């Protein structure tokens, strides 16, 4: 009785909370600190509910910086499905400790809104205030090499930012590419000059993959700026138009029913492969007894998945059967093998009946001993 009441209550609470969802955007705003500069930025709050929503807006987070932020308003009533714009201003002091200051701007339902009891729905965005560090200081914000196919160039991108107070005169980045056996397969050098405080640069080049075999690769980047060194690393893949069949299997199929055969696969290609046709052949003692196909599907780049093929096993005897699976795509075929069992439940019912008899005998013997 209690379970029947409890489950609907949980469901009602879930739906109740879902109808009171708030959204805020953007998720992050970045400010580069400059002495004497006043900052102003806009953001939005979205009421995703079907009823109007009174909200309160606030500033929190980094105590050193948050106190200099002012909101355009701290209270509002947002109509159903409405997106409302707000703004903030920040008049920061001349001296703010170096590094990153993380300020949170949030919107929360007003206390008691909609007759709610308990927690209120709220959302926040982050304002990151970057204060230059004394001297020269470079950060590597991103190192990325695009997955590609063998023989096609891979785009390399390195993003750096001057977080220091002084201009960086010269930046040199040396890249080395290694295969899965840790053998160096390629190298490149890029350079930039005169990177001013708070300024970012993206250093880009193409890595030629002629001679690369399909597989996983590792890249190192050593960045030197005005005599100071930093390093980073990343991984990428070079693909071939192949779908590898990883495993062919299936749960035991009850005799005289339709069962499922599963084919696990993984794409080695950096583009989507469409119209993949799965097919299975069933053998018993090396004699083919059945052949069937599954539904066509598409495979996303470098992803793994499972194809399900239904097999009508009615009329076949219980026992172990061999499976030969194939995936046909782009005038290519990948194959794999596995096994599956057809089981008879007659023995299972006999076992249950025998167990029941033994239980009855055990109970009678126990009663006899008590007498």
Explain this structure to me?
It is built from three helices and 26 strands. With 371 residues, it is mostly beta strands. It has three domains: 17-131, Immunoglobulins (Immunoglobulin-like); 138-239, Immunoglobulins (Immunoglobulin-like, Sandwich); 243-346, Immunoglobulins (Immunoglobulin-like). Strands 19, 21, 22, 23, 25 and 26 form a six-stranded mixed beta sheet that branches. A five-stranded mixed beta sheet has the order 2-9-8-4-6. The longest helix has 25 residues, at 346-370. The radius of gyration is 32 Å and the shape is extended. The two termini are 41 Å apart. The relative contact order is 0.09. The model is unreliable at 1-19 (pLDDT under 50).
Highlighted features:
Immunoglobulin-like, 371 residues, mainly beta, five-stranded mixed sheet, disordered N terminus, six-stranded mixed sheet, extended
In short:
The protein is mainly beta and 371 residues long. It starts with a helix and ends with a helix.
Approximate shape = extended
> Would you tell me the overall average pLDDT?
89
Encode the helix/strand succession as letters.
HEEEEHEEEEEEEEEEEEEEEEEEEEEEH
The structural domain count equals: 3
Uncertain regions: pLDDT < 50 for 5+ in a row? 1-19
What is the percent of helical residues? 10-25%
Query: Pairing-aware structural class of the strands and helices?
Result: mainly beta
Write down the Rg: 32 Å
* CATH secondary-structure class of the largest domain: Mainly Beta
The total of helices stands at 3
Estimated share of beta-strand residues:
over 45%
């Amino acid at each position: 009785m209690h379970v029947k009441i409890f489950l609907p209550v949980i469901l009602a609470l879930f739906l109740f909370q879902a109808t009171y969802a708030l959204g805020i955007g953007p998720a992050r705003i970045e400010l580069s600190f400059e002495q004497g500069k006043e900052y102003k930025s806009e953001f939005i709050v979205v009421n995703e509910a079907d009823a109007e929503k009174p909200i309160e807006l606030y500033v929190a987070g980094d105590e050193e910086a948050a106190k200099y932020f002012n909101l355009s308003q701290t209270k509002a009533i947002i109509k159903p499905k409405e997106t409302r714009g707000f703004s903030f201003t920040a008049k920061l002091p001349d001296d703010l400790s170096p590094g990153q200051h993380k300020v949170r701007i949030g919107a929360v339902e007003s206390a008691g809104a909609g007759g709610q009891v308990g927690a209120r729905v709220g959302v926040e965005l982050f304002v990151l205030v970057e204060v230059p560090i004394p001297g020269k200081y470079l950060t590597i914000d991103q190192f990325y090499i695009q997955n590609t196919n063998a023989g096609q160039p891979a785009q390399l991108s390195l993003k750096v930012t001057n977080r220091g107070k002084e201009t960086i005169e010269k930046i040199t980045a040396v890249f080395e590419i290694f295969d899965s056996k840790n053998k160096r397969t390629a190298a490149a050098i890029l350079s930039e000059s005169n990177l001013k405080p708070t300024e970012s640069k993206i250093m880009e080049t193409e890595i030629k993959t002629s001679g690369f075999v399909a597989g996983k690769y590792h890249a190192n980047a050593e960045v030197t700026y005005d005599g100071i060194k930093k390093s980073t690393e990343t991984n990428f893949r070079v693909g071939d138009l192949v779908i590898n069949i990883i495993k062919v299997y299936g749960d035991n199929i009850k005799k005289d029913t339709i069962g499922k055969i599963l084919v696990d696969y993984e794409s080695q290609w950096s583009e989507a492969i469409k119209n993949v046709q799965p097919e299975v052949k069933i053998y018993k003692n090396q004699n083919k007894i059945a052949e069937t196909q599954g539904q066509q599907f598409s495979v996303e780049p470098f992803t793994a998945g499972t194809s399900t093929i239904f097999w009508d096993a009615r009329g076949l005897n219980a026992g172990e059967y061999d499976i030969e699976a194939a995936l046909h795509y782009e005038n290519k075929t990948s194959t794999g093998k596995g096994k599956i069992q057809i089981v008879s439940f007659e023995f299972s019912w006999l076992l249950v009946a025998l167990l029941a008899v033994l239980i009855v005998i055990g109970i009678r013997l126990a009663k006899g001993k008590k007498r």
